[in-house]
Amino acid sequence: METRSRRRLRVSPPPPPDGGGSRRLPPSSDRISALSDDMLLLVLSRLGSVHAAARTGLLSRRWLGLWTSLAHPAFCTDASDKIEAALARFSVSPVVSSIHIRFPVTRQPSSLLRAAARLSPAELVFVLKEESWQTYSASVVLPCLCRATTIEIDAGLLGIRPPPAGEFPALEKLFVAGDIIDFGSLLSRCPCLRVLGVTFRDRPNWHSLEKFVDAARFSCLLCAVARLSPRRLIFTHNFYRHMEAHLRLLSISPPPSGNFPVLEKLSLSGNIVDLGTLLSRCPRLRVLCVVFRGMVDLRSLEAALAALEAAAAALGVTLSLLGVNTRWTHNVDAAGFGALLHAMARLSVQKLVLTHHFGTYVKADLACFDRAMSIEMDLLKYFCFTTLLDGEFSMLERLSITESSSIVDLSTLLKRCPCLRVLKVAMAMGDVTVHSALLLELDVHGTTECHHIDIVTPVLKKLELKVWAGSGRELSVSISAPMVEKVTWKRWYTTSGVMFGFWRLECASLKSQLQEEDTSSQHPRVHALCLHISCIVSVSELSVPKLLDLGTKF
Fold it and tell me: Which ranges of 316-419 does DSSP label H, i.e. alpha helix?
């Protein structure tokens, strides 16, 4: 009798007659080794790697070499020569359904891919780490896999090239990441492709920055993809941080003609041009994510928001994410920023991410986002929400405003957020008053001197307080948070800070953290107290005996 791996099935001898089969096996018998090959292969497959499966041969001769019949061999962080030697032990047959190779230690990935292609798997996953040596190395040549239906190749920073000849006749899903070369030729050899994921990682070329912002290159790639009519398309590009200022040179615009008749979900991020025209060509659009980046013209951004509002109303689109990054838009003043907030509030967005850097101190009103569940604002520098407009944040669960910006009336804001769970905000007024029955995380940063803290949060798990307070007037603190697990407290003293002779206490902080040695449930955390103390007299004014005497007294 043979299994699907064509290995002879080892069957235990039949039980003796006269009820002898009811007798128990002797304690010294190896019941696991008595199992069939298919059962043992199932055990080996659960180990997760060929390396671990091969080591079972040390336990018994019965297991020796059995790993070469695994249907789904997987390798992780192994040396390339060991992987190639292991793959050579597998026979060329339909036994191998998939091969997974993740983070191999190699500088010759093409050789590894050829060794895997020899087994003609139905699924191939090959993932490399991003390392500096890849910047100067040759490209990876993708082998031709005639039987593969799914291929996932992540070459890190290496280039990826199609094979010199041959097709992928059965390929339905392709995910490629790296410095992809001759992408159109690769796609033309995949007649059955239905799902495509692409991540372009250009290798750094400090002498030719134009490569990062080559709009024609991206347009040709998208046109090649469009000819395949994939059901799902993921198209991203990882820009380096120093290239962020050049994002304005790239734009996303609709095609000259044609519609997207079956498109239901659309996510765009970049310098989006003529958004209204694009949305008008998507009659079945239901979910939309939009992040505006690199726009230098405030009027263009306002026009795009107006087009977005009209399309959402006409198509019934759910705007799950709206991001606006006007970091490089220098002509936004308080009035213009207030108009932007009102325009965004009319969109009924579920999640709002807003980034802008102001050069001067700006005050504005906080518009009401009645449908938003999450609001994140990174507003630099010196920004303050002075007035809360009418309305309620009825669905808001998370509100985060960076420490460089602040809000005046926090207690009124909390009353208008009945579902709030996470709050991170800076206070323009010193005193802190927070009463909430549902708040789970609270992070409050005071920007002016504080005299009174009143917090009542029965289900709070995480608390962070950072306040300014003088030593001349007592700070009143009342905190009721019986369920809190993690606490961070920091108090900065004003110029009249606590004095100890020549020493001045500038800041005191208390932070709870897990113990490294004792992990028992009785004492799961410790509290670390940190005091920032400075000397108010310069060292040149003190003699050595005085310094020694001062240190002794302290």
Answer: 334-345, 410-415
**Eight-state DSSP code of residue 473:** S
CB 507 within 8 A of CB 494: no
Q: Tokens 């026009």 correspond to what residue?
A: 303
Tokens of 222: 């998208």
Beta strands of 229-278 (E only): which ranges? 232-237, 265-270
- Mean pLDDT, 10 residues at a time, the chain of 554 residues: 46 48 53 82 89 86 88 90 91 83 88 92 91 70 92 90 92 90 87 86 50 57 68 61 42 84 87 85 90 75 85 86 73 74 88 78 82 87 73 90 76 88 81 89 83 90 85 76 90 70 79 59 68 70 50 42
Distance of CA 415 to the CA centre of its chain: 32
Question: What's the distance, Cα to Cα, between the start and end of the chain in Å?
Answer: 87
DSSP notation for 101-132: EES-B-S-HHHHHHHHHTT--SEEEEE----G
Distance between CA atoms of residues 239 and 252, nearest Å: 16
Give the type of residue at 439: L
Omega within 30 of 0 (cis) for the link into 466: no
What is the pTM (predicted TM-score) of this model? Answer: 0.65
What is the per-residue burial (b if ≥16 Cβ within 10 Å, else e) of 390-428?
Answer: eeebebbbbbbbbebbbbbbbeebbebbeebbbbbbbbb
The confidence score (pLDDT) of residue 2 equals 44
Nearest by Cα to 120 from 54, 187, 171: 171
Q: Interior CA angle at 304 toward 307 and 225, to 5°? A: 90
Q: How far is CA 131 from the centre of its chain?
A: 20
Which residues share a beta bridge with 180? 160
Q: Do residues 121 and 101 make contact, with C-beta atoms less than 8 angstroms apart?
A: no
Of 50, 39, 48, 54, nearest in space to 4 by CA = 39
Model pLDDT, residue 151: 95
Instruction: Note whether 468 and 486 are within 8 A (CB).
Output: no
* Residues pairing with 362 in the sheet: 383
Rg for the chain, CA atoms, rounded: 32
Helix H segments across 316-397? 334-345
DSSP string, 189-234: T-TT--EEEEEE-PPP-TT-GGGGG-HHHHHHHHHHHHTT--SEEE
Element (H, E) at 461: none
pLDDT of residue 210: 42
